[in-house]
């Protein structure tokens, strides 16, 4: 459709003022032309929609015991994906579980990005002693196994969604800090930063307005993988019972289903598939963004 | 002294890097509205001199001694915050590489209006209008439609025009152009230099033009300062300089170029060269040009000859060529330009 719409504009070039296709449209088309990105984005959008409409789709409390325990998927039309050992609707719980997983994933990535970007920007831009000090701090965090660190932080505090997100964020910022630092180190030497300095801009303004937008593409790619990792970590924590018992999460469902692994394996397989799906979609989006945002393929 | 009239006066400026001194006691001044060309080969300290006026030296360089004053303000005494008020508003810089000097992710309109809003209290809309006017001023056709373009939509010459628009946005008194046309092709080069010259007259700014192209100097500069190995060796008005260069290095430079206007051709006579390289000046006492100089004398190797004023704004750092009366000057093997009248 868009191809047909453009054809006459190109032919009667004089009628169109300036360029025929605005930059934003061209960007959008670059996104839509990338099959990896489109596949990932579709799955992700579906998951987000499910999370948002969970209350409408399943108005009943998903924690309620509503049917015979351990119904297999397809056995009862009322519970398409069966029931668990307490007779709770597996499908409803899966849909509600999307909320916790996505929420923790996005919040943890946001916290990690915020800390990592600030630390990386200052270390890379200022260099010298500030850089050395901040990088030692990064190394301190990086030498600690992420999952152990998260378990320690969560076990010190109450395992609620905010503290879990905070713990994962605190454990994941060093990757971002290193990435942003490398970007800033190379970008601060560029001519346009020199030009900005020669126009009287302050260092903070140069960091935020001149360098940061140029440093973003790899950070955006890293962010999608960070969300995926945070979802996995959250699932791992829930499986280990470090979770809010009032919040349904996929990892928790796997943990609950463990006892019936030989008799009703679908109780662990289904939430496992959901986690795999979410992580896969985020990785696809990340790969797609990597291709699209690569400056060498700039549309 | 003439400092009252000078816009910029640089007095005995020395700039040191760890292990060596890039600029030795350079002194020059620029009057309002004047174009001074700073000429010399790569690595002779031209750019370092210019960047120290902006106080934008690399972190490992420092001004060892000297004074830089702009309209009576001692720039070296200002705090970093005060200096930021000077940059872009009273002194601007144009760099040599237009392809990379614009921020690739911001539209040119935004980049120009941000400069205006940095130094003047104007609304976003007014700044944008000014940006359109500025694009018009630097002869970008169809300015109103180009204002939302990104740097990658523009050619090198266009980008340099945008850089110039940003540099003159706040009507600075002094514009430092660091080899502004080196990266451009010859026809664009002339257009950009014409534009700079035109803006200089219209906005009443002075220009410090850093270049190694004597053709550019002859056409667009009022005065010239020749640098060699971190020292200014000759200062003169353009016409006297090209008519009779005094320092042996200046003569060598002029001898090594073809004057097309005088119907010369590289086949019609031999172009002279300056023997040796600038590296031969390293670690020796006395005149740094001595190892390459055709008229070198024993005294030249003992002490650095001072830049001696000869009147009419001319100063030369060579006792050998200035001590001899004009008629009796020895003919130099490399005085190609001097022989021509």
TrEMBL record, chain A:
SUPFAM superfamilies according to UniProt: MetI-like
Membrane-spanning residues: 31-58, 102-125, 220-242, 263-285
Organism: Enhydrobacter aerosaccus
The name this protein goes by in its record: Peptide/nickel transport system permease protein
Domain ABC transmembrane type-1: 98-286
PANTHER family assigned to the protein according to its UniProt record, in alphabetical order: D,D-DIPEPTIDE TRANSPORT SYSTEM PERMEASE PROTEIN DDPC-RELATED, OLIGOPEPTIDE TRANSPORT SYSTEM PERMEASE PROTEIN APPC
Domain of life per record: Bacteria
InterPro entries listed in its UniProt record: BP-dependent_transpt_permease, MetI-like, MetI-like_sf, OppC_N
Automatic annotation (TrEMBL), chain B:
GO molecular function: ATP binding; ATP hydrolysis activity
One record GO biological process: transmembrane transport
Alphabetical keyword list: ATP-binding, Cell membrane, Membrane, Nucleotide-binding, Transport
Pfam families: ABC_tran, oligo_HPY
Membrane topology of the entry: Peripheral membrane protein
Source organism superkingdom: Bacteria
GO CC terms, sorted: plasma membrane
Compartment(s) of residence: Cell inner membrane
Gene3D superfamilies (UniProt xref): P-loop containing nucleotide triphosphate hydrolases (3.40.50.300)
Record bears the keyword Membrane: yes
Domain annotation ABC transporter: ranges: 8-254
Record bears the keyword Membrane: yes
InterPro entries per record: AAA+_ATPase, ABC_Ni/Peptide_Import, ABC_transporter-like_ATP-bd, ABC_transporter-like_CS, Oligopep_ABC_C, P-loop_NTPase
Record NCBIfam families: oligo_HPY
Family stated for the protein in its record: Belongs to the ABC transporter superfamily.
Identification of the protein by name: Peptide/nickel transport system ATP-binding protein
């Amino acid at each position: 459709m868009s191809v047909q719409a453009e054809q006459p504009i190109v032919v009667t070039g004089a009628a169109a003022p300036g360029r025929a296709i605005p930059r934003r449209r061209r960007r959008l088309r670059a996104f839509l032309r990338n099959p990896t990105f489109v596949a990932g984005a579709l799955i992700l959008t579906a998951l987000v929609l499910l999370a948002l409409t969970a209350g409408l789709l399943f108005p009943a409390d998903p924690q309620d015991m509503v049917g015979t325990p351990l119904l297999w998927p397809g056995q009862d039309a009322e519970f398409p994906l069966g029931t668990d050992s307490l007779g709770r609707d597996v499908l409803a719980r899966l849909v509600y579980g999307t909320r916790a997983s996505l929420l923790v994933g996005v919040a943890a990535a946001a916290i990690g990005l915020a800390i990592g970007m600030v630390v990386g920007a200052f270390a890379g831009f200022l260099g010298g002693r500030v850089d050395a000090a901040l990088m030692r701090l990064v190394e301190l965090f990086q030498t600690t196994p992420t999952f152990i660190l998260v378990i320690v932080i969560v076990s010190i505090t109450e395992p609620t969604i905010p503290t879990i997100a905070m713990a994962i964020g605190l454990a994941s910022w060093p990757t971002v800090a290193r990435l942003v630092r490398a970007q800033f180190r190379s970008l601060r030497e560029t001519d346009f930063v020199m030009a900005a300095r020669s126009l009287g801009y302050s260092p903070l303004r140069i960091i935020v307005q001149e360098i940061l937008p140029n440093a973003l593409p790899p950070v955006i790619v890293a962010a999608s993988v960070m969300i995926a990792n945070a979802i996995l970590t959250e699932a791992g924590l829930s499986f280990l019972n470090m979770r809010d018992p009032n919040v349904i999460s996929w990892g928790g469902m796997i943990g609950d289903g463990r006892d019936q692994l030989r008799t009703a394996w679908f109780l662990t397989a289904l939430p496992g598939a959901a986690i795999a799906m979410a992580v896969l979609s985020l990785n696809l989006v990340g790969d797609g963004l990597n291709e699209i945002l690569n400056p060498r393929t700039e549309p | 002294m003439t400092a009252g009239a000078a816009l910029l006066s640089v007095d005995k400026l020395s700039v040191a890097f760890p292990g060596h001194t890039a600029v030795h006691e350079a002194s020059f001044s620029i009057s309002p509205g004047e174009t001074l060309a700073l000429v010399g080969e790569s690595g002779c300290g031209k750019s370092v001199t210019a960047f120290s006026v902006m106080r934008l030296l690399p972190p490992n360089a420092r001004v060892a001694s000297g004074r830089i004053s702009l309209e009576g303000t001692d720039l070296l005494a200002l705090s970093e915050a005060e200096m930021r008020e000077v940059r872009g508003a009273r002194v601007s810089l144009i760099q040599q590489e237009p392809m990379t000097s614009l921020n690739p992710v911001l539209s040119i309109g935004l980049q120009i209006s941000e400069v205006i809003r940095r130094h003047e209290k104007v609304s976003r809309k007014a700044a944008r209008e000014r940006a359109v006017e500025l694009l018009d001023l630097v002869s970008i056709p169809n300015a109103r439609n180009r204002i939302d373009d990104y740097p990658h939509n523009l050619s090198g010459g266009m980008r340099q025009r945008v850089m110039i628009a940003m540099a003159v946005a706040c009507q600075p008194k002094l514009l430092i152009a660091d080899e502004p046309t080196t990266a451009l092709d010859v026809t664009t080069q002339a257009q950009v230099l014409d534009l700079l010259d035109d803006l200089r007259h219209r906005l009443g700014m002075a220009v410090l033009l850093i270049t190694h192209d004597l053709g550019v100097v002859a056409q667009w500069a009022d005065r010239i300062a020749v640098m060699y190995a971190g020292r200014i060796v000759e200062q003169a008005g353009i016409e006297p300089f090209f008519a009779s260069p005094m320092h042996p290095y200046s003569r060598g430079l002029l001898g090594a170029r073809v004057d097309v206007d005088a119907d010369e051709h590289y086949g019609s006579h031999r172009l002279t060269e300056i023997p040796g390289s600038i590296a031969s000046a390293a670690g020796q006492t006395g005149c740094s040009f001595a190892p390459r100089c055709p008229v070198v004398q024993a005294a030249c190797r003992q002490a650095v000859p001072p830049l001696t004023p000869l009147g009419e704004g001319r100063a030369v750092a060579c006792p050998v060529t200035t001590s001899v009366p004009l008629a009796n000057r020895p003919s130099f093997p490399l005085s190609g330009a001097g022989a021509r009248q």
